[in-house]
Amino acid sequence: LTMSVRPGGCREALWGVFDGHRSHEVAGHAARLVSDFVWASPHWPASPGDALRGALRQCHESAREEKLRGGCTAVVLAAAGSTLWCCSAGDSGAVAGLDCGDVRRLSVDHRADSPEEVDRIRAAGASLEWGSVGGMLPMTRGIGNFDLESSGFACLPEVRQVPQDE
């Protein structure tokens, strides 16, 4: 778990989990850089969802440029004003415990057994092998895994939000 509080920011913080697979390189890269990409985004703080999505994509492309091996899932939470934002890619999850006592799932699982992900991969002209991407990974989205992009792996983060006062 990484945490970053925006310098000079009021009630603005980020938490991130980057679960590496096939190597630690991309996960470490993401843990070091995602918060910088969010804070520097022209979308922050007016559009936190766009800032988070852009930061994960920027991290993905910078890992490609550095020729890093492996990949990682990503779950990044941002507190901005009175809203909690969750940006996820992969099968790592986040839930929120609400003041009313309920629990709300914030992240989306991007897995090879999800009908939506199977449809997305087929529409891209790829197919799953043995119920996994490239015959190796159960998750279909994340950062890195450049050698599996032709098999349908993609950096396509999804964003959800919940008011912090629920």
From TrEMBL:
Residue ranges annotated for the PPM-type phosphatase domain, each copy included: 1-166
Q: What is this protein called?
A: PPM-type phosphatase domain-containing protein
Check the record and name the CDD domains matching this protein.
PP2Cc (cd00143)
Membrane-spanning parts: none
Superkingdom of source: Eukaryota
GO molecular function per UniProt: protein serine/threonine phosphatase activity
